[in-house]
């Protein structure tokens, strides 16, 4: 099929010119080929000097191979850059300052977890679903917060994938349980400590004001494993928000997080809800609440940060059936739907950004044509 449109995918080399999400980019390319949009994968390292030319990777479905293609910097870009280390952060910052005026992004960057919490708190309908959250401000404040909520999480404000997360629980008047994952996602076994030992035990996490402290929602299943839900909210081919799907995630043994990258397993949302709630009407009500919240968050974030095309929204549902909003991820993965066998949700999760990109490009083309017509006829634009 001839390509009428182009979409750039801004990525980042992890090491030895290895791209983090190459399998996802291949799927985007295959779907793009069917829809008539050429997918150009490039990184800040693939730009030729100060020119607006890139040496992109293009997947050819006909021979199943990636090939290099020297072409102009595309006008529309899907940013999939995840920052691993200071060097990559500098590269992407430099790219944005030099080239952002030449391109339009499908999504604008969001803020860190603390900034996000503050902004979402401004919306009263969303605020009631947010766990109490404060910035880490030393151990005295931490212990006071822990005694108030009995269970808390410490999270790096800019971390992803469950790295560096600590869970603390009050057991008795002066005994506390500490569990977590280090920066490489390795599980740190649970330890029972006294109030006086907390500071020493937490020192390995190098806590500072870049950490947030969050009220813990009871997430432990009968088998002792933690769980949560990942919802994917996306714009479709008409530029409208929709919930693409929602799936449960169950953490491995002794883990305080349920992320799939950290060894978690995926289960259908309804199966997980049925294992906890017996009444079908209650289950349906919880699902409706979750979907309504997801749509509210997507629209409000877009209002605050500018255009977005998709968001991964992490939700918790407490034993009473209340839906809690744990996190908003602007660069979500979509493997969770493949793992639970929801093939249609998985297909949409891949095709929606492409269909939305085509909608944007057509809209821009129509606007350009009407401006030209207005000039030709001396009409106000």
UniProtKB/TrEMBL annotation:
Name of the protein in its database record: Endospore coat-associated protein YheD
Domain of life: Bacteria
Pfam families: ATPgrasp_YheCD (PF14398)
InterPro entries noted in UniProt: YheC/D (IPR026838)
